[in-house]
Amino acid sequence: MKINNSLRAWFTSIAAIAFLLISCTEDTGSLGVYPQEDAVSTSSGTFDVISYSIANSDVPAGSTTCYLGKVIDPETDQAVTATFAAQFHTFENYTFPAREYIVGDNGNHLCDSIEIRLFIRNTFGDKNNPMKIAVWPLSMNNDKLLEESDRLFTNTDLLQYVDDSAIDKAIAMKVFTATDYIVSEAQRTSSNYSDNVRIVLNQKFGDEIMEAYYNHPEYFRDSYSFIRNVCSGFLFRTVSGIGTMLNLEVCTMNLNFRFKSDLYPDSIISGSCRFAATPEVIQSTQFESSDLSELIDTMNDEKSDTTMLKSPAGICTELVLPINDIYSGHEKDSISSASLTLFRINNQDEDAKDDDYALGIPQQLLLVRKQNLGSFFEEHQVSDSQQSFTTSFIPTYNCYTFTNISRLISYCQHEKLAGMKALNMTEEEWETAHPDWNHVVLVPVVATSATDTYGYSSQVSVNQDLSLCSTKLMRGTKAKPIKMQVIFSRFAGK
Asked: Per the domain annotation, does 394 fall within a domain?
C-alpha cells in the first residue's frame, strides 16, 4: 500500500507526540523554580560620606546669560561686581537704503541717533537704587580681539579686550535705576513693555557704521565680518553705586536714520537698524568678589557642621565616597542601589521681609567626579548616569536626593582594579597616585531636557547656574557623617 505525503506527515507528528509523552516525568514540582545556583540574595548597609567646601572659580561664562551691577552678598557681607562684554549679530548681507536717499542732518550726519538698550530679565536688590555704568568699545586689533576660540570664564579679565589707549576714555556713561521713572507708569505696566536701560551713543559712532557700509558693503556680509571690521562690541562695567544687580535678557544696538523713496518722493521715511547680542556671537560676564578662601577655611574647620553651594562667585561641596568600605566583604557582590540624601540648612536671610535681597536656592545640582569637573562643562556634556548625575531640589523635605549612584561606585572600583593590574601597583600606591579617584563635586546647574515625538525625554544641556544663588548643606564629618544607603545582590552559586 502506498502512503501519500499527507498521511506520512500525520504519522510522523503522532510519533513525535508519543515520544514526548513517554519521555516526560510526572514530577512537576520544579516548574517555574530557578535552579539553586541562580537564586539571588540581597543585603544592605549604611556607609559614611565626608564632605568639604571648595572654591569653584573657573566657571565657564555662558553666552546667553549676562549680569551687570554690584551688590553685597548678604551671607558673606562681601561685594560682588558683574561686568559683561557683548558682540552684536547682523543679518547676512544687510543693506541700508542707497546713500543718495539718506536724509542727513544738514549734511553733517548720516544717522539721526544711535543707542544701546539693555533689556532686564530680573533684578536682584533695589530697583530704585541709582547705579552708574561706563561703556567701552572692544578692540578690533588682532592681539586683543575677542575671538570665538577664547576660553572665557567668570573670572576672566574682560578689560584685556579693550585697547590700552581707550581704557581711560569710555564712550558713554549712564546713571540709571532698574525701574525707569522717565517712562510713564501706564507705559511701564503695559503688557508690551520690558524694563530696560537706555544708553545713548555719540551720533558720530552711528555715522561711522553707515559710512563703513557705503564704502565696504562686504563688511555686512555676516557677523564675523561685521565684528572684525565695523563694530567689535562693547564692555559694560559698573563704576559707581551698589545694591543692584541686573540679569539681562538681551542687549541691542539701534541705529536710527531717515531716507527718501521713489515710491513716496514727497515723504521722508524713518528707518531703524537693530543689531542684537545673540547666542550666535559672544556674550560673557565677569564676576569679581572678595577672596572666599577665609570663608572656605572656616567652613572646613573641624567644628563646622555645614558646607556651601554658592553661585556664581563659586563655592561647591566636595564629597568623598566610601568605596573601599562599601566593597569590603562584598568583593563578589553587585551593587543594586546606592542612594544619597543631602539636607539643606535654611539661609539666614530666607525669612527676611525684603525678598529683593534674598539669595535664591539652587534648584538643580550636578554630581560629577572631581577629576571630570572642568571637561564636563568645557565639552558641553550632559549627565550620563555613570560618572555624572543631576537632581532637583525637593522643597517638601528641604533636601537634594540622588536616588541611585551605584554605577558610579562600580565604575570607580573597576577603574582602580584595572589600573592596579595594568601598572602593577598595590592598592595604596594606586590611590596615592590618584588621590581624587573617589571624590565627587556638587555644582549648581541649569539642566534642560527635550521631548521627542514619541514622548521620550532626554537631557540636552547642563550649564553651571550663573544666577545669584546660595545654600548651606549639612556637612559630613568623621564624628557626624552623611549616610549612604547601599543594597547588594549576589547569586547563591557565587
From this structure: yes
Instruction: Tell me whether residue 103 is in a domain.
Output: yes
pLDDT digits (tens, 9 = 90+) for 154-163: 889 999 999 9
Query: Of all residues in the chain, what percent are helix, strand and coil, respectively (each to 5)?
Result: 20, 40, 40
* pTM, entire model: 0.81
Instruction: State the distance between the two ends of the chain, measured CA to CA, in whole angstroms.
Output: 62
Task: Report how far residue 388's alpha carbon sits from residue 380's, in angstroms, rounded to the nearest whole number.
Answer: 13
Residue 370 gets which letter from DSSP? G
Residue type at 72 in one-letter notation: I
Higher pLDDT, 149 or 223: 223
Q: Provide the CA 336 distance to its chain's centre, in angstroms.
A: 31
> Is 343 found in the same domain as 333?
yes
> H or E element: which one contains 413?
helix 406-423
pLDDT digits (tens, 9 = 90+) for 344-355: 998 655 554 456
Q: 38-57 pLDDT, tens per residue?
A: 567 889 999 999 999 999 87
Return contacts of 264-272, CB within 8 angstroms, 24+ apart. 268/103, 270/112, 271/97
Average pLDDT, the chain: 87
Domain that holds residue 92: 79-289
Percent of the chain with pLDDT over 90: 60
Domain-ending residue, one of 289, 323, 347:
289
In one-letter notation, the amino acid at residue 346 is N
Distance CA 462, CA 445 (A): 6
Written as one string, the DSSP assignment of 136-192 is EEPP-STTT---TT---BTT--GGGGS-GGGTT--SEEEEE-SS-TTS-HHHHTSTT
Residues 319 and 282 in one domain: no
DSSP result, 184-248: -HHHHTSTT---EEEEEEPHHHHHHHHHHHHH-GGGGSSHHHHHHHT---EEEEEEE--SEEEEE
- What is the DSSP secondary structure assignment for residue 105, as one 8-state letter? S
For 258-261, which contacts have Cβ atoms below 8 Å and span 24 or more sequence positions? 258/102, 258/103, 258/112, 259/97, 259/101, 259/102, 259/103, 260/101, 260/103, 261/97, 261/101
pLDDT: is 72 or 200 the higher one? Answer: 200
Q: How many helices (H) and strands (E) does the chain have?
A: 9, 21
Pairing state between β 364-369 and 482-491: unpaired
In a domain, 335, yes or no: yes
